Amino acid sequence: MAKAIPSKSEDYSLWYNELVKKAELAENSPVRGCMVIKPYGFAIWEKMQRQMDDMFKETGHSNAYFPLFIPKSYLSREADHVEGFAKECAVVTHYRLKNSSDQTGVVVDPEAKLEEELVVRPTSETVIWDSYKNWIQSYRDLPLLLNQWANVVRWEMRTRLFLRTSEFLWQEGHTAHATKQEAIDETIQMLNVYADFVENYMATPVIKGLKTESEKFAGAVDTYCIEALMQDGKALQAGTSHFLGQNFAKAFDVRFATREGHEDFVWGTSWGTSTRLMGALIMVHSDDDGLILPPKLAPDQVVIVPIYKGLDQLPAISEVASKIRDSLKAKGLTVKYDDRDSQKPGWKFAQYELQGVPIRIAIGPRDLENETVEIARRDTKEKVVMPRNEAIDKIPDLLDEIQDNIYQKALNFRTENTCHVETYDEFRNKIEEGGFIYAHWDGTEETEEKIKEETKATIRCIPLNSPEESGKCMVTGKPSKQKVLFARAY
Amino acid sequence: MAKAIPSKSEDYSLWYNELVKKAELAENSPVRGCMVIKPYGFAIWEKMQRQMDDMFKETGHSNAYFPLFIPKSYLSREADHVEGFAKECAVVTHYRLKNSSDQTGVVVDPEAKLEEELVVRPTSETVIWDSYKNWIQSYRDLPLLLNQWANVVRWEMRTRLFLRTSEFLWQEGHTAHATKQEAIDETIQMLNVYADFVENYMATPVIKGLKTESEKFAGAVDTYCIEALMQDGKALQAGTSHFLGQNFAKAFDVRFATREGHEDFVWGTSWGTSTRLMGALIMVHSDDDGLILPPKLAPDQVVIVPIYKGLDQLPAISEVASKIRDSLKAKGLTVKYDDRDSQKPGWKFAQYELQGVPIRIAIGPRDLENETVEIARRDTKEKVVMPRNEAIDKIPDLLDEIQDNIYQKALNFRTENTCHVETYDEFRNKIEEGGFIYAHWDGTEETEEKIKEETKATIRCIPLNSPEESGKCMVTGKPSKQKVLFARAY
Question: What is the ipTM of this complex?
Answer without folding.
Answer: 0.96
